[in-house]
Structure formats: structure tokens, C-alpha cells
Amino acid sequence: MSKEMIETLVKRWIKPGIRALSAYHVADAKGLIKLDAMENPYTWPEGLRREWLELLVNTDVNRYPHPQAPEVKAALRRTMSIPEQADLVLGNGSDELIQMIAMSVGGPGRCLLSVEPTFVMYRMIAAFLDLDYVGVPLRRDDFSMDLNSVLTAVREHQPAVIFLAYPNNPTGNLFDQDDLRSIVEAAPGLVVIDEAYAPFTEVSMLSMVGRYDNLLVMRTVSKMGLAGLRLGLLVGPSPWLEQIDKTRLPYNINILTQISAAFALRHQAVFDQQTEAIRRARDLLFKALRSLPGVEPLPSQANFILLRIGEGRALECYRRLRERGILVKNLHGTHATLEDCLRVTVGTPEENSAFLEALKALL
Ligand SMILES: *Cc1c(COP(=O)(O)O)cnc(C)c1O
Fold first, then answer.
1. What is the dotted CATH code of the domain comprising 63-266?
2. Residue 92 Cα, ligand 1 centroid: separation in angstroms?
């Protein structure tokens, strides 16, 4: 079969919405200081690793995992203070939960609404599932939300679901909680507050689950320090979650993840110390960036900082940082409001210093 023939078939059968997408890009980080993906830079103490290994050694991978992962759920309820009356659905990362929610409400003529710029998976998953996507622009200067334009878009498009990242990615800021409540009250459908960065901020909408009929809150263990396990959670009233749970593939939380997450969450204090260190490092990194001429960091409530670099030099800085062994995320060219922007994940103090020194040298 010829390449042309295959391409003709691809064009005929792969949906236009998929062909128009660019794949979610993950940069090769081999040998680099990895400050591009909001990972926790710290690993586990040696004693904890050994205890964990003991559990894994005694795991029977010939069996399917528990379909509901009750131990993991109980551990998450305990460590995240999930309201007792709220129901819980687990996903293979919160990415999978976004997809399950979109599948549950989706279809042609249905709309998924968010703000722009934000986490790209909302738009991508809408495209996978033929939902219309509406992205309401945030204010250009500080990426705050213009409540009126969101409410106008909600009235006009009647979205089946609204996704709002709180704090937002890639900007790191929080929206006004009263604005979020106004949106929940005005929305005809679901509102999902995506709290992926909860370990790095004091605020949350979790305690409001159950007070509104249409509010769901999503969390993940990825940014806290367990990105490799792929585990996210959706919290909300059971009538919603019972339906959404039907779209979950059987055994979506694999046995190694179930064992490892339940174990890790028994040692939550370790992660609390790590995320606390990251918060302190974030504030130091922000101050240091603010003192650099030509660099404009945005205050962040997450474990990363968005920075604007003057005179159209962001892409050049990104490339030259990489040459010097430091990988950050280039956002220049990804969205009109992100011109000249890079996003740097907060690493260890040593990694942050290396980044700062390299950036200073470039400027
Ligand atoms: C990283 C991120 C996610 C994805 O989390 P996983 O649980 O690793 O899939 C979801 N939402 C936002 C806003 C994120 O930044």
C-alpha cells in the first residue's frame, strides 16, 4: 500500500476536527533540568521507597485491580477533606475525568465553555468528542476574568459544561471566588472547577460541593508529587457522578497505582513538606524574576510562574535556556495573549538558581 493511498483513506475517515488538531506536545527532557511540566522535583526518602517496594513485590499483577479502588478513595477523602455527602469518581489522571465528563454531556450541538488562555485539554477533548468549544478571553494585562463577558457567553451558548481551572494554567492566577459562584448560579449545565494546583494555594471550592446542584470539583495527585501514577478525582453530587461513572472504562486505575497511591497518601506529611518547600521557593523565584530588567512575572498561586520577556525574546530565551540544559515551557505562539511568554515550573532551590543564573546571563 502506498503512502498516498493511506493518506487518502486517513483524509476520508479521520474526523476533520481531529485532523485539524496538533497533538499534545511533550518535549524531550533527557539530560535537562526539567522545569516544563509542573512536576514536584522531590523524590521519596529512602526508607519510604523500601517500604513501598515491599508492597509492590507482593502485588499479584495477574489479577485485575479492584474496579472501584476503595482504599484509594478512602485515603483521598481523608487527606483532601472531601465533604462526606459528596460522591467520588477516580480517573487515570484528571485528563481522563475531563474526557468522561465531556463524553457524558457531549455530542454535536452541545457546547463546552472555558476561558482563554487555559489548560489546552478542555479544547482538545471538546474536539475529540465533537462538542462546540467556546473560550472566553481573559483580560490581557493580568489574565483576570471579565465576569460580564463570561456571563454573556453563558447566556448565548448555553454550555452543557463549563471548565475553570482554579488556579488557572498557564497563568497561575486565581479567579475571584464570587465570580465563580455567579457563574455556577448562571450556568444552565455543569460547572467543573479544576483544582489541579490545590496543594499550592489556600483557596478551594471543595466545601461548596453539594451547596450547588451543578458544581463539580476536580483534583489530581499529579502536581502534589505523584504525576507518574496518573490519578485524578472528581467530587460532586451522586446523581451526576453515577451517570459520569458509566463512561469510565473498567479497571481504569491500575493495580500499581492503587497500591502506590494508597501507600503514598498514608505518608501525606512527606508531600505536605515538599509542597510547602515549593511554595516558599515560588515566592523567592517570583521576587528574583521581578528584579530582572525586561522580565515580567505574573504572581502565581500554583507551582509555576508565567513570565513575559520583553522585545520579542521569549522564543530565543527558551532555546538558549535549553542549550544551557534547562527546559521550560515556551508559550510564545500558542495564544494571542501569550506572546513573549514562557512558563517555568518551580523546582528545587538549586534548579531555580540554575534557571535564574542562565536567564540573567541571556538577558
Ligand atoms: C496538569 C493539569 C491537569 C492534568 O492533571 P492529570 O491528573 O495529571 O491528568 C488538569 N488540569 C489542569 C489545570 C492542569 O494544569
1. 3.40.640.10
2. 11
Domain 15-45+269-362 class in CATH: alpha beta
Question: Would you say 320 and 363 are in contact if contact means Cβ atoms under 8 Å apart?
Answer: no
Residue boundaries of the structural domains of the chain:
15-45+269-362, 63-266
Residue 1 has pLDDT above 80, yes or no: no
What mean pLDDT is reported for the chain? 96
**Grid cell locating 64:** 485485575
Among 115, 171, 220, the mutation site with the greatest number of ligand 1 atoms within 8 A of its Cβ is 220
pLDDT digits (tens, 9 = 90+) for 162-197: 999 999 999 999 999 999 999 999 999 999 999 999
Dist CA 271 CA 76 (whole Å): 13
Of the residues 169, 171, 226, 329, which should be mutated to test ligand 1's pocket, given the most ligand atoms within 8 Å of the CB?
169
Q: Is 212 helix (H, G, I), strand (E, B) or coil?
A: strand
Distance (angstroms) between ligand 1 centre and the Cα of 134 equals 20
Average pLDDT over residues 314-327: 96
**All three cell numbers of 85:** 455527602
0.85 exceeded by pTM: yes
Domains 15-45+269-362 and 63-266 share a fold: no
The C-alpha cell of 335 is what?
495564544
